[in-house]
Design brief:
- With 102 residues, the protein is mainly α.
- Helix content is 98%, strand content 0%.
- The protein starts with a helix and ends with a helix.
- The model has no long low-confidence stretch (mean pLDDT 91).
């Protein structure tokens, strides 16, 4: 009888211990799930930030390309103006040279 009481007491203590471990596992699983959700939210936020940075970088690159094209166009226009001025000066020298030579 004493052995049976001892076994019953041991089983009761084991059941209580098992329930405590089970509750701890449940709490840890809840904490882990919450941490996983927070981590996923952080990763999503970082992903959105990276996308925004990539978009801003692409916009900056488009603006720089536009400025480079405009600069090249201005250089070409300046060369054309200098060429036209050179031709004008040459023509004027020829005209005045012919006028004063006679």
């Amino acid at each position: 009888m004493a052995a049976e009481n001892l076994v019953a007491q041991f089983r009761a203590e084991m059941r209580v211990g098992f329930l405590e471990v089970k509750e701890l596992c449940r709490e840890n699983a809840d904490r882990l799930a919450e941490h996983s959700r927070e981590t996923a939210e952080r990763f999503a936020e970082h992903g959105r930030k990276l996308d925004a940075l990539a978009e801003a970088g692409a916009e900056r690159d488009r603006k720089l390309e536009f400025l480079a094209v405009r600069t090249d166009a201005l250089r070409t226009e300046i060369r054309l103006v200098w060429g036209a001025l050179g031709i004008l000066v040459t023509v004027l020298l020829a005209v005045f040279g012919l006028l004063f030579a006679r």
